[in-house]
Amino acid sequence: MFNKSILYKLAFTFVLTLTLIACGGGDDGDVVVIPEKTSLPGTWHFCNEFEATSSQFTYIFTGTRFTKLKSDYLNNSCSGPAANGFDELHTGTYTIGTQTNSGSEIGAFLLNMEIETAFGVPVDPYMFYQIYGIAGNVLYLGDNTGSQDGFSAINRPNSLLLSEDYIREASPGSPQPGDYTGSLAANYSASNFIITLSGCMDPLNNGDVTLDTASFSMVSGDDTSYQAIAIYTLNAGPNVLTLTHSITGSISAGNLIGSFTSVFAVNGSTQNTGDGTFSGTLSGDSLNISFIDQDRTGDTCQTVSSIDFIASAN
Q1: Is 174 part of any domain?
Q2: Residue 159: which domain range?
Q3: Helix residue spans in the chain (DSSP H)
Q4: Buried b (16+ CB within 10 A) or exposed e, 144-162
């Protein structure tokens, strides 16, 4: 019932290229970018606008880790509720290198990214070599659409794509994604736990399934409300199956409640979508989550589980 294993490098290239290809070049010879090396941590959004729809790409840099999200919208302004919650997720670690010349743009920095998950699934870690520059509240990344694709140090992008502007999310006084301020840890993990399925179209899919790993990561919020992403994974022979929950919830005295949208994928391909509710209890470094997930498209399964998470170092 679960799955996922695809050409992860190709997928990562595809997602990055989507964010770099929309706006074209232009004459940026007179633009001088003065990056601020220490201000990369934070949340950055770029809206890729089409005629009637749009996609928002988000980078979240915190500490030594990064997260990349994509949200699709049924308008051309990346506004209102996202049609798919969070999608096309990449996570990993990053380091900032020395200042580098990026052609006519001055003062970019080397950005070394080690990819650990692609589309919610753990992968054999691999490196992606980027550059970045910051001007005010705008982040520019290197242009990896040509031969300088970033999958080796020698092929690191050598110019900033100034037509792609990632705007820093900033609202003084309110919590921002990537800057979770509450008492929960930023990341929790679990392993070897059971989910129970019932009501599936194929009765053979009903019953208990033991999954390999799970992660529960805070995206934004404080000690009253928050957004989070939970990813449940099963490695089944050549296939990897993932169930991803995009969560909105509230906290009161260590008790969590909330709702989510869900995507079940097999080898990176969406099979079912749904929604559900969950509740949880926080005790020290332990977080117990119980959820009910109902398929709305692709199948009719109801999935329930109670999972004990432990706070992760990252």
Answers
A1: no
A2: 8-168
A3: 8-21
A4: bbeebbbbeeeebbebbbb
